[in-house]
Amino acid sequence: MGTCACKAPISNLLLHPSITTSSKPLNSKTLSSSSSSKRRLFLLSIPVSTTLLLFPIINLPPFSIALPEFDPVTSQEKEASASMSQRVLKAIELLDKGREFQALGDFTQALNYFSQVVSDYKDFAFSDYARVGRALALYEVGNREEAISEMEDVSISLKGYPEVHAALAAALYVDKNAPLLAENQFAIATLLDPHYTDLTYVRETKHWPPSLVSSLRHFITLS
């Protein structure tokens, strides 16, 4: 029997290039390349959440989206607001004019300005202060009945406003012969502002008309 051709010496099998892992010797460069490949494979296998923990997030510039401008106030509302502002300014201007003429002692002109505020701007709360000025002017020009009626009405809407209570006290005492009502009104006025016991104060600081100052003098002195 001949020798089988499929059998080869073990030494030849070890040297055959298809059997051996490499025909070239391993060196440091080869090892480094192999390590890099393994590292890349490792990183690719890590979940994204873990990667974010391992590596810091790069600060990127903020990303903004240009949105269309939104104005919550309509054009009609803006026009209404502008119109209201103009009305307020005009009313205040008239009120100041009335007080200027009152300070100058021109109660006829003061009455005109105060009356204009009362008639045209009565929807504003501060128009009640124009009513006080109007009542004082009416008292001076001789319309005392209307002046007292105005004072009584304003003393309710402006309850706690000392000037109107003091003026009403003086008028009630002299023109209505009502000392008890006058005392009640004056008690309210002086409790809020004791200055109304001083005739100089009402004449020079509050610019009361001479007729009302005289009535207050009669009330204080009980004459």
UniProtKB/TrEMBL annotation:
Keywords: Membrane, Transmembrane, Transmembrane helix. The chain crosses the membrane at residues 41-58. The keyword Endoplasmic reticulum does not apply. It comes from the Eukaryota. SUPFAM superfamilies: TPR-like (SSF48452). Gene3D superfamilies: Tetratricopeptide repeat domain. PANTHER family: EXPRESSED PROTEIN. This is Tetratricopeptide repeat (TPR)-like superfamily protein. The lineage of its organism: Eukaryota, Viridiplantae, Streptophyta, Embryophyta, Tracheophyta.
